[in-house]
Design goal:
There is one protein chain. The protein is an all-alpha fold. The chain has a domain at 38-64 and 101-173. It contains 8 helices and no strands. It has helices at residues 21-33, 38-63, 66-77, 84-99, 102-129, 135-147, 164-167, 170-173. The chain is elongated and about 75 Å long. The relative contact order is 0.08.
Amino acid sequence: MSQIPDQLPPAPTQNSPQIGTFAQAFELALTRLFALTESGAQIRGSIFSTLVMITWLLTALWFHPWSDWSVRLFHFRLDPASSPAAYILVLIDHLLGFLLAGDTLTRLITFFLPAWLAHEIAAIYLMDIFELPKTSIGRDFISRTAFASSSSDSLVINSEKLSRKQEDSPAIRIG
């Protein structure tokens, strides 16, 4: 039997990109995003809040195009008797009018109703599995662990006992 000497792979040159750098960065980003830590939950909460705002704005712009905005705002701007304060108030009025329009809000409800239902069904599931007295404990647990919605309370144990409020804590009831 002949032995083939071990060969080392060629060292990457300065001009060749390192293979796997993008994949490693993507994997690191996903690991941080789905980490079961406070910072991971804060990242998920920030992403969710940002996506809600972007969805709301895009929905308002989709059903009330820029031409609707520009006609009203530019005609007001051409009025020589208008003041900057009045212009700002009219801009805010038009912006809130488009964001809070009935068709915009009804479409947002149809977008976010499934997410709310999933949250409620998961809370009911936790209530059933862990025999919780009310669904608000499961809802609070999901909100805290998934999106870091409220600050986590620290548990103080005095003479091997918890206070009544701490006994109802999602951390004690669920885990």
